[in-house]
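## retry 2 of 3
previous attempt timed out at serialization; input unchanged, resubmitting
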Amino acid sequence: MERPISDFAPADANRTPRFADVATFMRSKALPLEHAGDINVGIVGVPFDLGTVYRVGSRHGPASIREQSRPIKPVNFHTKVAPFEIARIADLGDTPVHPLSTDASLEIITDWFNQIRDCSVRPLVLGGDHTLSLPVLRGLARDGAVGMIQFDAHSDTSDETRGMKISHGTPFRRAVEEGLIDPKRVIQIGLRGTAYSSDDNEWAREVGITMVTMDDFEAKGRDAVIAEARAVVGDLPTYITFDIDGLDHSHCPGTGVPEPAGFSMRDALVILRGLQGIDVIGADVVEVCPPLDVGDMTARNAAYLGFELLCLLAVASRNRS
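## retry succeeded, writing output
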């Protein structure tokens, strides 16, 4: 028998101050993984950054994002979505990781998301570096390739990084090769910056990934990019991944590989709101590096992006119930 949604209401700020108690995402109810079958949407931290090649520290991202989510109110002012009123939502804590072994960590993370998939839970994942999207997809997309909307300064489809096949620069090449994502149903938004060579993104284009650079974004405008993203993924299961460096560096100083000239928080929030109704099976916010942050700005922006993603997941869960 399903528990009522009211059992999973977040802490009431009128009874317990927002600054009190242990931080969960938006002060949601904490629940162990073994009880994931009771919920529709689960917040999961993945404190992993062994795939980072430049500035490390995103292993501390999940804790910082949760802390900065304390002041977020439970209703989306713009879309009127109240996620905790339409879905059973809880914070499932962090996946275990091996602090010294990438391979062991990937196995552990994959196992966790296999269990989450078995419970039909749609996860909101707090990272961690972008490597983690690969084991998350291994768990969620094991029954067939899904679509993906990626917000990022970088394509993350390199073949290798200093001889390593799995790092935060390669997850989506591996995901295509493993049949986890359908490249013709993948759109990458916000690409920019410098490159190692003129053909850095040639493989991604050849397999059919839709690539929207920041120049494209400015030329087309937000509404056109929203429409394009919806057309690319269609009404089939879709994963959303948000690398915080998709934002302009002025909005995210605390990240491993910052890039100037990205989109604003306003752009990001409007685009996410425009994706409501898509069958979002899971989503992540990654590459938040608290040791490099300034006034918690990056973690706070990640928390608000997480809230928009939570709204999308809750609506998708309700629509497919």
